[in-house]
Design brief:
Blueprint lengths: L1 E5 L2 E4 L3 E9 L2 E9 L4 H8 E5 L3 E6 L2 E6 L15 E11 L2 E9 L6 E12 L2 E11 L2
Parallel strand pairs: 2-8
Antiparallel strand pairs: 1-2, 3-4, 5-6, 6-7, 8-9, 9-10, 10-11
Length: 139
């Protein structure tokens, strides 16, 4: 479901439903029940550490370290954010039959998209929880 959309902004939230049998008298029917999904920004804050300098963006996820040379983007240091921002571009998809959240990383208000944090979910303990977190650089 789209929460917000505009120039440089696409925020969506996900609602997942499963059907459960419901017996009413002698008849049985299926009713939709919403399944909780861990919030992607909370997962990001718990799992991702970032650093932004005038020359590079660094993203650390566990023992994986990603570096993006931002000099080719031509962004003046005064136009850079203080840190990499992941709140404006949030999208959900189904990939390989799995729920995936993609959070776009931005380093400046305009022309500063560097890639996505991709969160893959797994259904566990009656809810969708994080399975993996990785950074996919912008090509």
């Amino acid at each position: 479901m789209t929460k917000d959309i505009g120039t440089g902004v696409l925020q969506r939230e996900v609602h997942v439903f499963q059907t459960q049998p419901r017996k009413s008298g002698k008849t049985q029917s299926l009713i939709p029940v919403e399944v909780p999904v861990d919030e992607p920004l909370a997962i990001l804050l718990k799992n991702v550490k970032t650093e932004l300098t005038p020359n590079k963006a660094s993203i650390n996820i566990g023992d994986k370290k990603y570096r993006v040379d931002i000099k080719p983007l031509g962004i003046q240091p005064g136009h850079l954010f203080d840190e990499i921002y992941f709140g404006n571009l949030i999208n959900f998809e189904i990939e390989n039959n799995q729920l995936v959240a993609k959070l776009g990383g931005q380093i400046s208000p305009v022309g500063g998209y560097i890639g996505d944090i991709q969160i893959t979910y797994i259904f566990k303990d009656k809810m969708y929880q994080v399975k993996s977190v990785e950074f996919i650089p912008h090509e």
